[in-house]
Amino acid sequence: EEPLVFADGASHITLRGLVFEITRGNGIDIAGGNDILVAGCTIRNIGNIGAIIRGGSRNGMLSCDIHDTGDGGIVMEGGDRATLTPAQHFARNNNIGDYSRWVRTYRPAVKISGVGNRAANNLIHDAPHMGILLSGNDHTVEYNVFRDICRDTGDVGACYIGRDWTMRGNVIRFNIFKNINGPGA
Predict the structure, then answer these.
(1) Which of 5, 16, 80, 95 has a Cα at 20 to 30 A from 168?
(2) Cα 110 from Cα 107, distance rounded (Å)
């Protein structure tokens, strides 16, 4: 039930070309630290979340294949909302599909919170609920392709942000949305 990789306060690490699979817990858990890169990896058959980035700055997921997760794909939390200091975490050029197999709602392909994080050039597909869940400030969601998601629920969006007027400065642009519909839609 523990993550396959846990980096606590580490910095300047690259995990490249590895396969992370078959666990009941999370795949990768990065807590704090700076400049940690997970690139060209496959994360599959994970019980919970593919990869979590909490705190620190400039940590990210690049060109990874993430699929068949019980919960979501990537969680990025970082930045200081009180001072609007960005974390600059990123999820770029990832293929994230067949996620939320265990918990069917509110477990997106990419969950972004805090300040100043970016999801770009990702393919997000084949899921029961949302693609990206945003909370916080000054995030960028761009050049992503969303397809065949929001299949099981009606009160949902491919890219979802909700009910807090202090969450400002977020940019959602240049994305492609295909086959986004659920029951009754």
Answers:
(1) 95
(2) 8
